[in-house]
Amino acid sequence: MTTNQPDPIVFGEQPLRIEQVVALAERHAPAQLQSDAAYREKIAKGARFLDSLLDKEGVIYGVTTGYGDSCVVAVPLHQVEALPRHLYTFHGCGLGKLLDEASTRAVLAARLQSLCQGVSGVRVELLERLQAFLEFDVLPLIPEEGSVGASGDLTPLSYVAATLSGEREVLFRGQRRSAAEVHRELGWTPLTLRPKEALALMNGTAVMTALACQAFSRAEYLLKLATRITALNVVALEGNPEHFDERLFAAKPHPGQMRVAAWLRQDLAIDAPTAPLHRLQDRYSLRCAPHVLGVLADSLGLLRQFIETELNSANDNPLIDAEAERVLHGGHFYGGHIAFAMDSLKNLVGNVADLLDRQLALLVDSRYNHGLPSNLSGAPEATAMINHGFKAVQIGTSAWTAEALKNTMPASVFSRSTECHNQDKVSMGTIAARDALRSLELCEQVAAATLLAANQGVWLRLRNGKNDIPAPLLAMREQLAADFPPVIEDRALEGELRLCLTRIRDQHWCLYA
User: Which of 181, 195, 277, 319 has its CA 20 to 30 A from that of 398?
Assistant: First the structure.
């Protein structure tokens, strides 16, 4: 009997996609390094060229000079070998929570892909060890906080450089261990980083880019889930499916907006006969759902372009052109594109949370939910007066939505001049990416609450004799029923909300082709 193993994701000359980084982060695919002789020689040539410059006592930033504002300080050749260790050592000052396992794997993948562009002046052995960290799941313990997103993610990436060198700590086989001990257990010799290698590892945008890949994947699924929730709520609230007519959207043809409307038509079987309507026009949170969600749908292409271009770029400094024998000093470590993408995503996701929050507010309010019980309680008449259904869930949803909206403040406009005014304009891209993940977490909480409420609303309609629920939504309700029984008598819903969040983050439900 054979099992189907996923194809390895190859790091080298071919560009990677966001989905490949996420697959590595989630352990759904193995990592492999391009191994043909021509590619290995391309990488080795850059390292040899750097060595030749050292032999000639050439001046190279971060190799024969100090770092940052200290670039005017010459480093004598007998101290050049010690400089990389000093770089990752003095940057060992990160604070905050540690990146989780998936994010750390994504960081390793993003850094490896950048160095694989072949213009960073590093050895093949360094690329091999980064690939081995992914293969054997040796995960540096990386604090989230301490990067301003220009001159790269210096502080968080110092933990990658240090652990490759056998210092600091890693997570290995579920345990927090010293990097030196794990190297011994695996039979590896810790790397002694060559001139430029610590700088090449640290002076780039790998942390913000890795987090952006994860955020993009979650936002893409959230778009589909929010559409499905909206369709369930159109049924639960006895809304007007004709708001999503194809002819209507042909008159305002934003492609993503049209796609969301098409998904809603598919879910609601819009061409089928409809029951008499309570209202000619539904409230905006239903009627304008394609217009709200369509902005996210239409923005995903641009966000993908920004993220994948950064992912497949050489974003350290200086770059080493071995073919032309030139050292190119620049500023590719600046994370402005990721900062903009993530600040934009926070805005987009905040609007999704607000949309779903408004739908839930309609569901629980007997003035607007067209005959559903107050707070969606399924209690019989004898105990109706002491049951409160989804009342507290709606309050919680309002809190999560408010926090998501507060979080839309762009991080990128809070540039701070740092490091003796050498880094006098910085991107704050890593803060923006962390913010975006927090916004997604909050919006997923709103989605979980609204999904369970929509499920309850549809169940109440079924209980009252409704028999024309479209097949896609009936199938979704049946899937939900396996985990989330109707709320008849009040019960604490935290456990079910957490389970729903797990389902959302696992992208459990197949939603639209």
Answer: 277
